[in-house]
Design brief:
Elements (H helix, E strand, L loop, with lengths): L2 H30 L11 E5 L5 H10 L6 H10 L9 E5 L5 H9 L2 H4 L4 E4 L6 H10 L5 H7 L30 E4 L5 H19 L10 H14 L6 H13 L7 H8 L35 H8 L8 E4 L6 E4 L2 H7 L6
Antiparallel strand pairs: 1-2, 3-4, 5-6
Length: 345
């Protein structure tokens, strides 16, 4: 091989190496901005405190597993000119979002999100009638009109096909998602119902597996979640309580949930009489096997996810023993009776 040929080969080799390095670096940089997991659409609620620096925001997002590298994230924010646009508050993000998507979400000005309206806050565990009462108290509509608008799921089935899985004539109890809504002037009661169903659908599309789970139908999952919502206040206990109810169902034991009787009574009595536990109703889990025919309140996502992903335990009983609303869980009736000595009403 002559000198010129060697020179050409050397240049080509150098160009090849440079090309490989270039495309390798380019690929690496591109990966930094891609979604962490395109298939994982589950919602991660991220709180950005007021006054947070760009570095703090990057740390929060990295801790939540939403970005690969904080430095690359900060560089991208600065490249887009958004370093002074990051908003404070709670954001619903997911690992399926790219870095650009996340930046767009957390820098969107409030006025770009909603028109001016009235903030309607619906807490987890609210029954339909409590939602209706709050709407009326805030001057957003009539209690009676809202109850009527949410009485029969059939009028919303075409817009929200998941309702077709419910029984004919079933109300929307349990499917009016607890969240904060922006209610514009002249919004009808039916439109408020649609907003709540839309919020429910958004969460279910992101989190609910297809088909049934633990041999329960979609309606049964939400029904059990509504019972857990009403029974449990401490978040860490929700999956444990779910395991208790699953264990009782699997062993042919009645659920004996006070919350189901309170639903029948229409009031949240701290202590039920023996006569009340014998009320003849399909919702009374003291006298009927299995679950009630439909939900008893609107469960939040933590209760729904606990029902989908229960803890694995041998517990069959629980009783409230903590001032913070926490419970003692036990495996036998003898242990349960002992725990009841410390029960808090």
């Amino acid at each position: 091989m002559n000198k010129n040929a060697k020179w050409i080969v050397t240049i080509l080799a150098i160009l090849l190496v440079v090309g490989i390095v270039y495309f390798g670096v380019k690929s690496y940089f591109a990966k930094m901005y891609k979604p962490m997991d395109k298939k994982d659409t589950s919602i991660i609620n991220v709180e950005i405190p007021e006054g947070s620096s760009l570095s703090t925001v990057a740390e929060i997002l990295h801790y939540e597993g939403l970005i690969r590298n904080g430095t690359f994230f900060k560089s991208r924010v600065e490249e887009l000119g958004h370093e002074n646009d990051i908003q404070s508050g709670e954001f619903a993000l997911s690992k399926s979002m790219s870095v650009n998507d996340i930046i767009e979400e957390i820098t969107r000005k409030p006025e770009e999100v909603v028109l001016e309206g009235t903030k309607l806050v619906i807490p987890e565990g609210f029954e339909r009638k409590l939602i209706a009462q709050r709407i009326e108290e805030m001057g957003l509509g009539s209690k009676e009109a809202f109850m009527l608008a949410s009485e029969d799921k059939s009028k919303y089935e075409e817009e929200f096909p998941f309702l077709k899985e419910l029984s004919a004539g079933q109300s929307l109890e349990g499917y009016l998602f607890p969240a904060t809504y922006n209610i514009l002037p002249d919004t009808s009661e039916e439109d408020i119902v649609r907003q709540m169903l839309g919020a429910f659908k958004l969460r279910m599309d992101a989190n609910f597996p297809e088909g049934s789970y633990n041999n329960l139908s979609f309606n049964e999952i939400i029904t059990l979640a509504s019972i857990i919502e009403r029974e449990i206040k401490v978040d860490d206990e929700r999956p444990i309580a779910a395991s208790v109810f699953y264990n009782r169902i699997n062993q042919g034991m009645r659920l004996q949930s006070c919350a189901t009787v309170q639903f029948i009574l229409g009031e949240r009595k701290p202590v039920l009489s023996e006569a009340e536990t014998k009320i003849d109703s399909p919702f009374n889990t003291y006298i009927n096997d299995g679950l009630p025919p439909s939900p008893i309140a609107s469960p939040g996502m933590k209760s729904i996810m606990a029902t989908i992903n229960p803890a694995q335990t041998d517990y069959l009983f629980f009783v409230k023993t903590g001032e913070d609303g926490s419970h003692t869980f036990t495996k036998t009736y003898e242990e349960h009776l002992k725990s009841k000595e410390n029960m808090i009403r």
